Amino acid sequence: MTKNMTDLLAHLRCPITKSKLRVLNPDEIRELNGNIRERRVCHCDGSTVSIEVQSGLINENNSYVYPIIANIIVLLDAMAIAADAETPKSLNNLRGEKAIVQRFYDDFGWFNACGQFRDATEFEDLRPVTAEYRHRCHMRVNRHIPLKGEYLVDVASGPVQYDEYLTYSEHYAVRICVDLSMLALKEAQRKLGDRGVYILGDITNLPFSDGFADAVISLHTIYHVPADEQPQAYLEIHRILKAGASAVIVYAWGDKALFVRLCLVPAKAYDGFVKMLQFPLVYSWTGKSRVVKACILPYRLACRALGVTRKLFPSDTTKDCEPRPPLYWHTFDRQWFERRKWPFQLEYYSWRSVGVPFLKRYVHEHVGGRVILRVVFFLEELWPQWFARYGAYPMFVIRKRKEDPKEGVKRMSSD
N or C end of the chain: which has fewer CB within 10 A? Predict the structure, then answer.
């Protein structure tokens, strides 16, 4: 175990029993590996333990073992190893929607043939014309978390793929990366090295004690959580916060965002115009009739204008040719959040008001795309709450009150 893992051990909890964890001693490892070779133990989801344990953690009553693989602590309840044949097993696999997300990022979501992150090329507009705007939006997270502290917990950290993401933990002693994807954690480990602790875990069942984190971030994550478990994800983030600490969550309204729908009205009208022009123009008289020429002149002018606009405003960019597997996605609207009785105040700020469809339709280098995005950013700064409510991507800020550090520990049942 690394020094950071040893220091964090006091705050780690068994995701099944919620009890404290300790390090396995050499005798326990030998006995456990003997049981693994003889197939007397299995994972709590019923699957066979395929590799022997080199190091790991065990809970207080010695019933569940959590292996440490390549300095990544496996703290998923389904992957816990029943310490002996008598240990009760949950016999539950990772929930279907979560398994879909895990498979997506382990098998597809990261590197493509060009060495880029596939999820970024699929869901983001990475053209140079949008770089400044994307950078300034990423940096907004720093405004709402403490400037420094001991532990910053990055829930569903992925591979910490953007350079701006590294700035969030610049002044923290340790960044704790939690994710369902082992591949993502290995890449995060490559970037952060000894400054991080890496945990295979679930956002709806965070394996930490109450009130230990100085800050928590979760970016573009919770809308991939099963709909009925999304409230629990917010409650878990609030639970692990220290009194007086804050968390930042970037969410998405999806196609429910009013500002996005309004912005795309001209594009949809244009698409309808294009479809209309695709119908063949049929006329029987092809002579030199001036009437016929006058009738088809608007059509010819429209086709010529269509060719010009397609060059000025291309609607898409080159994509990865490999087919994308399914990825679970569910977003709630703003009214759903406002109807719920949260044990904390949920503050709204704009993270980004426009999404990829807007960027690819309207923002291009040769027609002032950078200027357009500077204007958009200025408006977001001027009215951050309005654009948070009606733009594409709101940024929720949760602050834990100093006078009640235990508030929000109880789990709220979903609607």
Answer: C
Whether 163 is covered by a domain: the verdict is yes
Close Cβ partners of 122 (under 8 Å, ≥ 6 residues apart): 319, 320, 324
**H or E segment and range at residue 271:** helix 265-277
Is residue 198 in some structural domain? yes
Q: Answer yes or no: do 182 and 72 share one domain.
A: no
Q: How many angstroms separate the first and last alpha carbons of the chain?
A: 41
Contacts of 415 (CB under 8 A, 6+ apart): 228, 231, 340
Name the token pair of 192: 């952060």
Q: Which residues of 361-400 are buried (b: 16+ CB within 10 A; e: fewer)?
A: bbbbeeeebbebbeebbebbeeebeebbbbbbbbbbbbbb
- What is the DSSP code (8-state) at residue 113? T
pLDDT, one tens digit per residue, over 286-298 is: 455 555 556 655 6
Question: Is 375 inside any structural domain?
Answer: yes
Domain annotation covers residue 166: yes
Q: Are strands 346-352 and 172-179 parallel, antiparallel or unpaired?
A: unpaired
Residues 175, 147 share a domain: yes
- Give the residue from 219, 68, 78, 111 showing the smallest Cα distance to 156: 219
pLDDT in tens, 55-101: 999 999 999 999 999 999 999 998 999 877 666 655 567 888 888 88
Distance separating alpha carbons of residues 153 and 197, to the nearest angstrom: 9
71/25 same-domain check? yes
State the Cα–Cα distance between residues 36 and 48, nearest whole angstrom.
9
The SS3 of residue 370 is helix
- Give the three-state DSSP class for 20: strand
What is the residue range of 277's domain? 258-312
